[in-house]
Amino acid sequence: MYGFGLIRGLIVTGKNFVQSFYNPSRYTTQEYPEVKSTPPEAYRSFPFLVTDSETDPLGALRCVACLTCEKECPAQCIFIEKSKDKKPDANGRLQFYPTQFIIDSSVCMSCQICVEVCPFDSIKMDKVFEVAVSSRFENLLLTRDKLTKSNQYFHLISPSEAQEVDDRLAAERKVAQEKAAAQAKAKAEAAALAAQVKPVPAP
Amino acid sequence: MSIMPENSYLGRTSEVQGDILEVSMGPHHPSTHGVFRMVATLDGETILKLKPVFGYLHRNHEKLAEGTSYLGIMPYTDRLDYLNSMTNNWSYALAVEKLSGQVATERAEYVRVILAELSRLQNHICLAGFLLQDTGASGTPLMYAFREREKILDLFESLSGSRMMCNFQRFGGCRLDIPEDWIEKAKIIVENFRVFLDEFEALVTGNEIVLSRTQGIGILKPDLAINAGITGPVLRASGVNYDLRKVDAYGIYSRFDFRIPLGKYGDTYDRYMIRVLEMRESIKILDQAFATLPAGPIIDPKAKNRGLRPKVGEIYSRIEGPKGEIGFYLISEGGPNPYRYRIRPPSLINLTTLEDMCLGQSIADAVIILGSIDIVLGEVDR
User: Fold this and answer.
1) Which CATH number belongs to the domain containing residue B173 in this structure?
2) Is B243 strand, coil or helix?
3) What is the pLDDT of residues B318-333, one digit of tens each?
4) Is residue B284 part of a domain?
5) What is the pLDDT at residue B124?
6) Total domain count for chain B?
7) Residue A68 to chain B, least CA–CA distance (Å)
8) Residue A143 pLDDT greater than 70, yes or no
9) Does B34 reside within a domain?
10) What is the distance in angstroms between the Cα of A55 and the nearest Cα belonging to chain B?
11) Residue A3 touches partner B, C-beta closer than 8 Å
């Protein structure tokens, strides 16, 4: 019958209209400024640098300025200046550090390749999504102090990944400590052995 | 002396008074799906000549890739056809895998099929919504389609971190493993999608206005479609049985039981209907893939992504994207970047027959014919 298709369509529209008042699967919108959506844990927006220390954020950066992310970044939006001297990191080992670490967030395309290639778990993806700023040049150029965020913050935004990274780093640290301890012990033993073997000159 | 200045537009009346009128639609026309221009020569309302003009969104993608590492090209492929980053990633990953002799793991192959079919669902429902928007059904079907599409995009977001720029495939597998609860969520969404498709068809398919607007409009003859190199749903709507999922059986598509829907007349209605039927077949594939998803590593532990330097050689690799054959042609000279990188974009090649479909139709129909080809300007211009 001519016109039946139209009526059938109107029934669908009517059903959707009525159900939009009580059926959650028909809700389509959120009232944004009042209700903010919680992004999923995998969500990524822009990179930030992880620091292990709360008190001296720039002193305990995990980044050792190896320049891997700078080389791999497809958009070439990362600029790093490597230090001449070394500073102790969270493990107490002397490492290089970035004297400058700049990400041009107007060029960054949030592909998280820098996160993937980083061998030190020092650069991670943030979850901020309200990133509008008033100035085009100063505010979009993220410098080292703007990029640095604490490990606690990383735990806050992506708990399971942060825990996994912490566990892995702790395991690595333990292995390194054990190795160092074993080396020290072996050295001490060798020294003791040498002392034993060494003939004591007779008076 | 005329009151009009000599060079003003209104002063030169000869074009307006004649029967033939040249109309430039776009580049900022809402029906052109992006920055695309159609220069139509009209006799009254009938199209005599139509020239597609594109290139407004050219981003130097292919040349850019020649200076980028193989891994670094992956996020750029998201931005080709930005509705289907998953299939673009897959096609590129497959090309590099073939070039460098890597093989994806079993689980990754299943995950790729699942993601590609989900991508096909959301692309086709999006197309159906846009097509109806172009016919003048303002809002309602498009919003219903977008509501369901958003659920699939939420799946992509919870998996890869981004709704549309997924950057998910890697050489030798996928970037992350699929969590168990993600699969449960996806199963529910696919099940609901089946119900939604019935509802959408009740809304649209039998609607008399849609039928009279789309049937017999923009007919594409099968021999022209073959000669012009058309692929994808546009080709199958003309009745040519050619689907790379069957012809090439790339990945693991030979293990799934599904059929290829074919059109009969090659008009706009057939092109719409093919998409609806393909979505139903995609749901079938998804059901089978969810049931048989094996355990195992998602990415080959020996897979090389960073600092990849494939052996000297060249490769062309293609898959059936939602819009047609998306292929990547790579030449390696043993360096960290491809020597030549070329994309076969389905949207651009399907667009070449736009004039043949539009000739003799009215200008209002050109809009829906363009809508039924399903172009994305990010891919046309690259």
Assistant:
1) 1.10.645.10
2) coil
3) 998 898 899 999 998 8
4) yes
5) 92
6) 1
7) 10
8) yes
9) no
10) 31
11) yes
- For the segment A7-37, what is each residue's pLDDT rounded down to a tens digit? 888 888 888 888 888 887 777 778 888 888 8
> Is the pTM higher than 0.90?
no
CATH number, domain containing residue A116: 3.30.70.3270
- Residue B194: both structure tokens together: 């089946």
Looking at residue A1, its pLDDT comes to 63
Give the chain B residue nearest A43 (alpha carbons).
B161
ipTM over 0.85: no
Q: In this complex, is the C-beta atom of B41 within 8 Å of any C-beta atom belonging to chain A?
A: no
| A9 falls within a domain | no
CB-based contact, A161 to chain B, within 8 Å: no
Q: pLDDT tens, B165-178?
A: 888 888 888 888 88
Chain B residues touching residue A111 (CB < 8 angstroms): 74-75, 78, 165, 167
Say if the Cβ atoms of A42 and B176 lie within 8 Å. yes
* Angle formed at CA B150 by CA B149 and CA B156, multiple of 5 degrees: 95
Kindly report the nearest CA distance between residue B381 and chain A, in angstroms: 19
Which residues on chain B are in Cβ contact (under 8 Å) with A44?
161-162
Measured CA to CA, the distance from residue B283 to residue A26 in angstroms comes to 21
Asked whether residue A89 is assigned to any structural domain, the reply reads yes
Instruction: Encode pLDDT of A153-196 as tens digits.
Output: 888 888 888 888 888 888 888 888 888 888 888 888 888 887 77
State the average pLDDT over residues B148-157.
Answer: 89
Helix (H/G/I), strand (E/B), else coil: B216? coil
In total, how many domains does chain A have?
A: 1
Domain of A144?
47-167
Residue A117, chain B, CB below 8 Å: the answer is yes
What string of DSSP letters covers B153-189? HHHHHHHHS-SS----EETTEESSPPPHHHHHHHHHH
Examine residue B360 and state whether it is found in any structural domain, yes or no.
yes
Reduced to 3 states, what is the DSSP secondary structure of residue B210? helix
List the domain range (segments joined by +) for residue B271.
Answer: 61-381
**Chain B closest-CA separation from residue A109 CA (Å):** 8
Residue B80 touches partner A, C-beta closer than 8 Å: no
